[in-house]
Amino acid sequence: MATEITMPQLGESVTEGTITRWLVKPGDYVNKYDPIAEVMTDKVNAEVPSSYAGTVEALKAEEDDTVAVGDIIMTMILESEGSEAEEAQTVPLDQAEKTGGQTGGETAGEPTDTHSEKTRYSPAVLKLAQEHSLNLADISGSGRGGRITRKDVQSVIAGGHKSSGAETKQKNAAVNNEHAFAAEPAETSVSSDSGRYEEIPVSGVRKAIADNMVQAKHDAPHAWMMIEADVTDLVRYREKMKADFFEKEGIKLTFLPFFMKAVVEALKAYPEVNARWGGDRIYRYKDVHLSMAVATENELFVPVIKNAEEKSVRGLARAMNRLTADVQHNRLKQEDMQGGTFTLNNTGSFGSVQSQPIINTPQAAILSVESIVKRPVVMDEDAIAVRHMVNLCMSLDHRVLDGLISGKFMNHIKQTLENMNDDTLSL
C-alpha cells in the first residue's frame, strides 16, 4: 500500500507552499532525508526532504501548483513494504469531467506521445480552466509531452482569451441587452493590447504575502505611534569604529545592530511587548527572538535571530550578516524562520522617513527604523543646531498593548539610542 507524503509547514504561520521544481519522478528510489522537491512560500524557499526510504509511486501535484499544508503531494512505496512503484494514473479530459479530475503523474518508464500527455490534466489546471470558461483543447501545452500546465492557462487568461463557448454566451448577452444599456465610453474600456497596461500573473510568493498581510490586518486591530531620536553621538561613534570593525570582522558596521541592541534592551525592560495574542490569553515570552525583515528584488523573508538578548552589538552584526547572506544565496532553512517574538524592519535603508508596518502576527508589535537625516533642532536655551535625527515607527496589536506601555517602550529605545557613545558602548 502506498504511503502519502504531504506538504510540510515551512515556517510559522505558513499555510501553503508552491512546488517550483520536482527533484524526483515516478519510479525513482529515494533515501530517507533525500530532497524530493523545491518549495517556495512567502517566507522561505526550501528543499523538502523525504521522511522515508522507498520508491516514488506518483506525484500528486504539478510544478507551480500551490498546495495547502497537510495536502498530499506525492505517494511512495516504502522500502519496508518490498514492492516496486506502481503505475501513476492520470485521467483523460472526458473522464476527468465526470469524476471531477485526478492529479496526474507520468507512468514510470512508459514512453508517451504528445497527444496522450496533452489530454492529461491536474486538478489545478482543470479548476482554473473551469473558473474562466476556457476550453483546454484549444490551449497549447508547454510541459513535458505537450502537457498543459497552470502557467499555460494563466497566460491565456492574462491575454484576455476565452473559449468559443464563452464567446458565444457573451455575444448572445450583448444582443439581448443592446437596447437596455447605453454603450460605455471607449476610454473606460481598456484592453490588454491597448498598450496602456500589462497583466502580470501573481506568483506563489506574492499571493502568499498578500494573503498573510490581509489576514494580519483582519485579525489584529492595528494602532500606530512614532517617536524621533537624536542619534548624533551614535553616528559619530560608528564613524570612528567602522574601519577597525571591518578589519577585525570582515563585515561592514551598519547602524542596524545598534538599533537591534536598543530594541532588545527595551523588550527586556518591558516584556509586555515581547508577547503574542492567544485568544483567551496573552503569551509573554522570556527570550527575545528577533525577527528581521530582509527583502530581495522580488521576495520578502523574515528570518529570526534567536536569543538576541545574549548578544552584543558585534554579535548582532554577525548574526544579521549571516542571515542576509543566507537569504541572498537561497540558503535559509525552515528553523531560521520560526520562533520570532518581535519584528524589526529597516525601512530606512530605502530612504523612507515614515512608515506604518503591518504586524507579523501573532506577534504583538513591529518596529520600523527610518532613515537617519540631518535636521535643525532646537537645543537648550533655544539654540538651534544641526543634528542627526531618526524616526522610529511602531505598529501594535491593540488587543495586547495599550498606549501607556507602548509609549514607555518607545521612550526606552529613544533614551538608549541618544546615550550611545564612547562612554556607554562596547562592541
From TrEMBL:
Keyword Nucleotide-binding: no
GO terms of molecular function: acetyltransferase activity; lipoic acid binding
Keyword Transferase: yes
Single GO cellular component term: cytoplasm
Cofactor(s), by name: (R)-lipoate
Origin superkingdom: Bacteria
Domain Lipoyl-binding: from-to ranges: 2-77
All residue ranges annotated as the Peripheral subunit-binding (PSBD) domain in the record: 120-157
Keywords: Acyltransferase, Lipoyl, Transferase
Family to which the UniProt record says this protein belongs: Belongs to the 2-oxoacid dehydrogenase family.
Protein name: Dihydrolipoamide acetyltransferase component of pyruvate dehydrogenase complex
Species of origin: Salisediminibacterium halotolerans
